Structure formats: C-alpha cells, structure tokens
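Case study 2.
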Amino acid sequence: MADQQPSAPEIAIPGLAHLSQIRRNLTTGALYEEIVTHREGQIAHLGPMVVRTGHDAEMPSSDKFIVKDSVSEKTVYWDNVKNELSLNFFNTLYRRLLAYMQSKTAYVQDCMAGSVEEYGIRMRIITETAWHSLFARNMFYQIPDAPPLEAFDPAFTLIHVPGFHAIPEMDGTDTASFVIISLERKMVLIGGTTYAGEIKQAVFTMVNHLMPEDVFVMRCSANVGPDDDVAIFMGRGETGKTTLANDPARRFLGDHSHGWSEKGIFNLDWGGYAKLYGIREENQPYIHACTRRFGTLLENVSLNQESRRIDTDDNNLTENIRAAYPISHLPNAIRSGVYGHPENLFLLTCDAFGVLPPIARLTPEQSVYAFLSAYTSKFKQTETGEMAPEVMFDVSFGDAALALPPHAYGRKLLEKIKEHRIKCWLVNTGWSGEPYTRGERIKIGHSRALIRAAISGAFNTISWETDPVFQFEVPVQSPDENIPAEMLNPRKQVADPGEYELRANRLAAEFVKDFKKFESDIPEEMRVMLSQIISVDDSFDFEDYDFNI
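Prediction:
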C-alpha cells in the first residue's frame, strides 16, 4: 500500500528526519501524477512517460567510489580501476547531502532484487524526483504486503539526489557527480546526475556483494526455449544482448543481471532498460511495443509537442535514448521462479574492425578468456565530429562493479561450464571481413538465425575449421538456407587477404596486451592455461606497417 506521510519519520536513516513528505511505494499512476505536477516529464501518445537527463550519461569510473572501511578493506579487490574514498570524506559529503534534503519531498520504493524469495535482497531506494522512483519501480521487484515504513529492514539503502553536487576539494571526489558505496553502512549515495542507469548499476554492485557465495551473479540476458532449455547472453552495450535474448520464439527470462545457483538461473531485475535509437518493429517487436505502453519510461526520446508522438530516429539530444519498462510489458516474459542450468552460453561482441566471424565455437577455456576480456568496439566522436571506433576491453563485463579479483569470476564460470557441459559460442554482431569503413554491419536477422541454429543443434552435423590466430572454430557450411555460407568466415569476404591478416594479428595483440594487465593476479595454473588461447604472428611489425587498429 502506498504511504503519504506529511510528518516524515527517519525511515531508518539517521539524519533524514526533517523531510517535508515521504511518498512511499506510490503506484505507477500516482507517480505519473507527481511527474506531471512537478513538470519532470510529459505523457506521450498511447501513454509512455518522456523525461530528459540533460547532458548526463553514464559516469566514467573515475566518478565512482567505494568507501575504505572495515568491511571493504577485507572484501573488495582493490585494483587500479576502483577508487577508494576515505571515511572522513564520506561523512562530510553525507552530512551535506542530508542538509540539502531537509524540507524536501522524498520518494521511497521498498523493493527487492531477485525473482525468488530464497535469494531476494531487499532494498530501499530513496529519490529526489518522482520519475527516478518510477524507474526503480519498473526495474526491481515489488514486495507484496510490505511492512510499515519504520518496520521495513532493507539489506541496503540507495539515495539518489541529482540536485546535490559534490565539492571535489571538500568531498574527495573527482567532479561534482558521484556514486559512492559504503559496504559498512550498507548505503549507496548518487548525486549530480539525472542518468537513471546509475541506480541500476549501483544495485548490481551491492547485490553482487550481498548474494551468498554459492550464487554466481552475472551481467547477462537470458531466455528459455519450449523445452525449458536456458540460453544466456553476455555482452556490453551495442552488442545486441537485449535484442537477441528477446526472441519471439522463446520466453524471456531477464534483461540485465541474473543469479546462478546450484538450482539454476533466476532473474535479479523486474524490468528492462533498452536502447532505442533506430529501433525497428520488425527487428525488436516486443521492445518496440513497450515504447507505446503506459508505465514505460522513455529517456531523451524526441517528442512532437503537438501530436505527442515519439521519434526514436531523432538523435539531436543524444543517441543514448532508452526505455525502462516492467517485464510484465513483454508478452513472452517469465515473471518469477528458478529455471534450469544453461545449455548454451553466447558471448557477444560488436567488432568494428571486421576481424571476428559472425559465430564461432569456443572451448570452456576460450569462453573464460572471452569473458575476462569482454572485448567490443565502442564508437566515440572525434575532434572532427565523426564517429570512430575504439578497442574496448572491460574485464568480466564491468570490473568496477565486481568486488572479487577477475580470475575468481572466471574460475566460477569455468566450473559451471564444465559441470553442466554448456555449449559456448562467440557471436559478432558488428562487421565481419571488411571493417566498418568498407563493409556493412551484420544483419540482426542473420545473428538471430545463427543463434537459433546453435540452440537447435543444427551446427552438430556440419564441418568446422580452426582459426589460425584466435584458435576458435569457424563453421565451414551454413546450417540454414537463410544464412549465406560465404558470410561465416571473414577471410572469404575480404578483397585483400594480407591486409586482413594484419588486422587480425593486430587485434589479437590487443587481447594479449589487455590480458597482461591482470595476469600477475591470476593463479599460475589458470594463467598458463589462458596465456595459450591466442596465437599472434610475431613476424608482423605493426610500426613498420604504420598500422593502428
């Protein structure tokens, strides 16, 4: 039941005693009224709510901190990616944040991460704005018959205050924006940013820390076939993870994060958070339909002020336009429960340099290497205004969110793969053969057909050949008449074979270079195993060729 309390109690957080109002567990309809009343957003045609994040986007890792305290000192893997914040700095910033919140209205959502009570982690999300409260309501599981405000005992509390800005020289931050996690206080503070995705990322970090050791917490999408066979999809942004997991022929288990226990896979999020720029109904019918549903939150989508119709092809504000929707909006969604162990694992990448094949078969060891590297191409704007790709590695699909050393997650994954005999695949949704400057991106229909072929076992009856550089196996024949055989091997699509080999070995050298960043922390047995995955041709001198990937 939603609470409206003009005389606000402390809601179990010392210092938050002087709020004007607490608007707790408001329904979607009530939050719509708050958003419109306070001019935080506008209702679009057919009912979605359109909001703006301004210039705010995902924060760089330099703006994200973990407080160095009695808990984090023992449990966090302190590498050069994680930024520590002293307890004194945290206390100073926290006191100023509490002062800022005095006499303001706070929106509270008491919710849970996890589709099953056995593994569910209860949390309290306090926001300054109604639309961020709607985001939290869409993203996480609601608690039926939640106890009264004062009686609710969350595992952690997240406070999101975009109007409050840090003072770097006073608070120890890098800029005015921040995400700060205190494991000892079981608290997350987010300020100086309206980008709602930071709430989702911070919750994942806390859940990763609080989940029992026998549960492997993963960033992935997942779906379930007619025979209850589970497939999981790991990949960074722009690789097609959400799109490919949302297959109309299969049931959708979850979009972003899952737990993997001894019993099987379960979803951690209630909602989806999908990129919308350039979305087409024929490629993503279910997500496209969500953009026309009451309750969906649309970030930075262009809105015609007269017709109130949206335009997802307009990127004048930003290309980072997104939809946050509850999983109940998807007709093929599974809303709760634990499903079996995966039978297929797809590691996704978007290779802009045309080196990797559309699909390759991996050994368990190669899968762990790909998981630890998490390679993709990230397009960024150059000084001339053009968009150009960069090689991007992000260990375990987001090292900043992981408390244990990378090899600990890699070992967990390897054990799971071997124990359950999971078939592993690399899927490139970018360019294959020729790079982005000369070729066309792989059609999403082809990627979906290849994944369906892998799941159905159609690849079992064809021949494979080993790639001389990356050592994975590439199919020789097409398993489906709708998939052109010539597209399966990038070497058969290039105009200049020598130039392709140069590109392939240059990308392989980038993998080796990235691996060296953390190989000293990996146990010797695992380090020797992984160091033999990729074979770089030492005869290439990239400086002599004046070649840069």
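The first helix runs from residue 28 to 37.
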